[in-house]
Amino acid sequence: MTSERAWVRPGYGPGGPGWHHGLMNIMLFHSTYGLRPAVREAADRLRAAGHEVWTPDLFEGRTFDTVEEGMEFKEAIGKEELLKRAVLAAAPYSDRGLVYAGFSLGASVAQTLALGDDKARGLLLLHGTSDIAPNAHVDELPVQLHVAEPDPFETDDWLSAWYLQMGRAGADVEVYRYAGAGHLYTDPGLPDYDAEAAEATWRVALGFLDTLD
After folding, report:
1. HSE value, Cβ hemisphere, 13 Å, CA-based, for 23
2. Less packed terminus of the chain by CB within 10 Å, N or C?
């Protein structure tokens, strides 16, 4: 049985300060597998809830069947080039105040962009996080992370340190963990898939988006 467990910093949530139902502009980044059908399906789910969603293809059409192949391709591109592609994809829409979101690798990209964008309205992380620059600072940026428990790519020690660092940077963070799920448990086309955890994640994530203003 999959269960969810949250670490929640107080200050927002349904019925709390700033709560409303509104349209968000969401930049959704794919994982190291590339722009798979599951990413497009996730975007459609968000659009059905009334949001505007873009799904940049940072791999320029390449998709992969294994995480190892995807990682090899990512390393060949290089971190700097990958972030450049992400910034260029987001730039035309950043004045609208974006919610940055992503899956695994895409979550790390989303986090980097959100922490550098003073107009960002939120950060939705699915299956991944990233390093935090020592001088990073945001003004109570709402952040929600969904991650398996355990997750070989997001260890308990790492997540504890990440959570504290995000708080020190000024982010308002929620972390939801899903016992027994695989790393990329929201993708129906992967062995990691866990239907119960995926539906719980989307239920909570859509609620999170409703809190943003």
Report:
1. 8
2. N
Q: What is the pLDDT of residues 54-95, one digit of tens each?
A: 999 999 999 999 999 999 999 999 999 999 999 999 999 999
The set of long-range contacts for 68-72, using a CB threshold of 8 Å and a minimum separation of 24, is: 70/31, 70/32, 70/33, 70/34, 70/105, 71/32
DSSP assignment letter at 57: -
Q: Look-up: residue for tokens 């939705």?
A: 124
Residue in the block written with tokens 């990209």: 109
Q: Three-state SS for 201?
A: helix
pTM: 0.91
- For every residue of 98-149, DSSP letters joined together read EEEEEETHHHHHHHHHHHT-TT--EEEEES------TT---SS-EEEEEEEE
